[in-house]
Every structure is written in C-alpha cells, then in structure tokens.
Specification:
Elements lengths: L1 E4 L5 E4 L7 H9 L11 H9 L5 H4 L4 H5 L6 H13 L8
Antiparallel strand pairs: 1-2
Helix pairs in contact: 1-2
The structure holds zinc ion (ZN).
C-alpha cells in the first residue's frame, strides 16, 4: 500500500477502492453540515447526504436500524450522533 500526500499536505494510505484523501473528503462532507454535527467520517456523511439528512433534527425521523442499514454508516457514527442528539434532548425515531 502506497503512502500518498494530498495537495493540502495530508498523508494517507492509498487503496484502490478509495483514492481520495480521507481528511479532505471528510472536511468537504462536514462542510455541508452544521457545527453541532459530530465528525462521523466521510463514508457516514455520504450515507446521510444520500438520503438528504442535513441536520440533527432530520435524524429524529430515522431509527437506529434504518441508519445502520445505510452503506458506509457504522456503529461508531451511530454512537457519535446518539451523543449529539442526547445533548439537545433529541433521539432517533422509535419504530
Ligand atoms: Zn487532504
């Protein structure tokens, strides 16, 4: 696996299925979301973006099971979002 250096100075391991700098792509995705949104990582951001979830309040329409079924969305992202929702007295949908 080759170590690559992106235009913004991040080093990352280049894999064939993910040729993009992970730091830059996470920052690009995170830029679409509000500051209160935790950094859940680019794959999870892309998963939410694909179903037009753009804020913490949008998340309350979905259950944990529905989120975990999304491609790229894992338990770590779920935990981070759960904590962020709890701080606002919000929660995932109960279905
Ligand atoms: Zn980068």
């Amino acid at each position: 696996m080759a170590i690559k250096l992106c235009d913004n100075g991040h080093t990352f391991k280049k894999t064939s299925d993910c040729p993009v700098c992970p730091t830059c792509s996470t920052e690009e995705m995170k830029g679409k979301y509000s500051k209160e949104f935790p950094n859940i990582g680019a794959p999870a951001f892309r998963a939410l973006d694909s179903i037009k979830i753009q804020s913490l309040s949008d998340l309350t329409k979905l259950s944990e099971e529905e989120l975990l079924a999304l491609h790229g969305f894992g338990p770590r992202a779920l935990r981070l979002l759960h904590e962020a929702l709890k701080e606002k007295d919000l929660s995932f949908a109960q279905k």
